[in-house]
Amino acid sequence: MTPDSFLSMCLTAGFALIMLSLILAFVRLAKGPSFSDRVVALDMMSVSIVAFCALYAVKTGVGSFLDIASVVALIGFLATVALARFAERGLHRDRTITYDKGTQPPGSRAAPAPEGEAKT
Amino acid sequence: MNSLILTTATRLIVAILLLFSMFMLLRGHNEPGGGFIGGLIGATGFVMYAIACGTSEARAALRVRPQQIAAAGLGVAALAGLSSGLLGDPIFTGEWLMIGASGDSKGLALSTVLLFDIGVYLVVMGGILTLVFALEEEI
Q1: With an 8 Å Cβ cutoff, are A81 and B44 in contact?
Q2: How would you write chain A as a 3-class SS string?
Q3: Of the spans A82-91, A97-106, B39-48, which averages the highest pLDDT?
Q4: What is the complex's ipTM, to 2 decimals?
């Protein structure tokens, strides 16, 4: 087995595994019972896309794909933070999280939700 | 949003984003990049700062109003486009100034195209920040 054929075999395996992780994350995004499940699934998809860009840069030898990977990573972080703040403000209509609206003004820190570990 | 983790991480990430936006702007003519994507990445840095530390802090960090940035960018782009008309070419022709060009080396290549790209950068950054700050203060 030459180094080139081993590299191409590894690249094929890597692409297949990234596709698998994208599919699994998409299933969670579509099914996800709560809002925070969907946010984490979206974050996982953006990380998978970053890995895909890096592998594609190795496959083609074009360094520009690495810049795309860093842009996707930075913007994906912003998307996760914005969605986490959206969830914290309790503006979404998700029936699994119930806020006590009588005692709390809408801008303040929300009551502890059932999935408290998902706070960012 | 009072999160210590986010505020600490934001300091680092804003610096990286602004540096990366400059990198994207300056490499734009020969490789992927340019004023538009550079302006978007730079605006993302300030949006990040506004989310972590509040809109008033981000406005103070920006020092001038975002509308003024957009207007200044439009002026720079128009100046770059019209400057070739003063030199006798059709307007919006790229004028190149090769500093230290000799033989096969082009030297430092400056152009009105770069000036136009800087204008696009400022317009995109100012426009996006105007939108985002208005949305942030609305809620």
Answers
A1: no
A2: CCHHHHHHHHHHHHHHHHHHHHHHHHHHHHHCCCHHHHHHHHHHHHHHHHHHHHHHHHHHCCCHHHHHHHHHHHHHHHHHHHHHHHHHHCCCCCCCCCCCCCCCCCCCCCCCCCCHHHCC
A3: B39-48
A4: 0.73
Chain B CB contacts of A70 under 8 Å are: 20
Q: In A, which residues are within 8 Å of B33 by CB distance?
A: 67
Lowest mean pLDDT among A98-107, B27-36, B107-116: A98-107
Look at B51 and A85 and tell me if their CB atoms are within 8 Å. yes
Decide if A67 and B51 are in contact by the 8 Å CB cutoff. no
Cβ atoms A86, A63 nearer than 8 A: no
CB contact under 8 A, B44 and A88: no
